[in-house]
Automatic annotation (TrEMBL):
<feature type="signal peptide">
    <location>
        <begin position="1"/>
        <end position="26"/>
    </location>
</feature>
<dbReference type="InterPro" id="IPR037167">
    <property type="entry name" value="Peptidase_S11_C_sf"/>
</dbReference>
<protein>
    <submittedName>
        <fullName>D-alanyl-D-alanine carboxypeptidase</fullName>
    </submittedName>
</protein>
<dbReference type="InterPro" id="IPR012338">
    <property type="entry name" value="Beta-lactam/transpept-like"/>
</dbReference>
<keyword id="KW-0573">Peptidoglycan synthesis</keyword>
<dbReference type="GO" id="GO:0006508">
    <property type="term" value="P:proteolysis"/>
</dbReference>
<keyword id="KW-0732">Signal</keyword>
<comment type="function">
    <text>Removes C-terminal D-alanyl residues from sugar-peptide cell wall precursors.</text>
</comment>
<dbReference type="GO" id="GO:0008360">
    <property type="term" value="P:regulation of cell shape"/>
</dbReference>
<keyword id="KW-0645">Protease</keyword>
<dbReference type="InterPro" id="IPR001967">
    <property type="entry name" value="Peptidase_S11_N"/>
</dbReference>
<dbReference type="InterPro" id="IPR018044">
    <property type="entry name" value="Peptidase_S11"/>
</dbReference>
<dbReference type="Pfam" id="PF00768">
    <property type="entry name" value="Peptidase_S11"/>
</dbReference>
<comment type="similarity">
    <text>Belongs to the peptidase S11 family.</text>
</comment>
<dbReference type="GO" id="GO:0071555">
    <property type="term" value="P:cell wall organization"/>
</dbReference>
<keyword id="KW-0133">Cell shape</keyword>
<feature type="binding site">
    <location>
        <position position="250"/>
    </location>
    <ligand>
        <name>substrate</name>
    </ligand>
</feature>
Amino acid sequence: MKHRLRFLTALMGFFCVLALSVSVDAKSQATETPNIYAKSAIAVDAQTGQILYQKNANEPRAIASISKLMTVYIVHQRIKQNKLAWGDKVKISAELAKLSTASGLTNVPLTAGRSYSVRQLVNATLVESANAAALALGQKIAGTPAKFAALMNKTARSIGIHDGKFYNASGLTNKLTGKLALKNVSGNAENLLSASDVALLAKNILKKFPRITNITRQTTANFYGTQMTGHNQLIDDHSIANGVRVDGLKTGTSDKAGASFVGSATENGKHRIITVVLGARNKSASDPARFIQTAKLMRWVYTTQRPIKLAAGSTISGVGKAQIPDGKQTTTLPVTKSNQWVWASKGTRASQISGKYVNKPAKLASPTKKGTLVGNAHLSIGGKRLQYIGHSAGKFVMVTDKSVKKANLFVRLWRAILRLF
């Protein structure tokens, strides 16, 4: 009997250890950084630009039709500047009309001499990925393909993209644009951006033109009687993660670029992220590889990470006091100026977030008002500094938490004497 009890006890212990091992392994697999099968990839918070995942994210690569996001970004800029309107008409040249029916290219048919609205051409550019429509928008804005390419590069630099290169509004190789090709440029020249730069472009367009997702979430649309079909296979896909929905943004496909995709998703309508997958497998036009990898990346972000709110007026561990030599109080505690969201592994507490000044703040003069700028801070979790896309991103503004009056003359004099010793 005793032997049997020992045997049963040992057996139960074995199964407990096995169950615990399986549980730990499952947890480890769920939180393990995913292996994204693509040449480059990145995931960022759409509002702050915080990097949540990256793989070869700073290497410029061909982006094909993802280029059309820059074209639409410039269109929207011109509309905001009252230099263009959604209802403006774009007259189609013979070269554009011919290109719109070229074999092997995504397009909507355009008729030479006919005019189409800016709004409809933008819809065709984003939903159908119509190449001639994108080129028509470029010519409407700049007059010639060369001038629009120059404008694309100038705009890229203005938003912090310095390593990329644009040759045309559509993302086609130079030779595929036919008579619209740039002179003295290789026929194989193709628009180049890194995954990080694509994410930065997407971040800017979502911030300044948030209604773009009303277009990019469409699976079908109509262009002057022509039925358009979107290419984003993740629209209406409810299997990514609980509450996660994809509403954009753009595919890109070419021999050099492979199959690429820049995605936009929210969880229960909040906490938008941007994902970029460049150079995924591309065995056929319907190969779902880029969408499988994007879904894997989105699922990992939303199931293993969570955004933590740092409310305005929060102190951050490690960010030292501000010095006010002539104040009634000689120091004051800096706090965050505005509400901020920081992504971290699930289970992380706000108290585990620490900071450090970017540059040591200058001593403040008194009297000092509440909310006076103290300096900027970089944040870290577990000693690892948080990374962001964009030159100035990731610098948290710290301000004084209260007003500090100037000390009276006798106090200031006494402090001056003490400093002599």
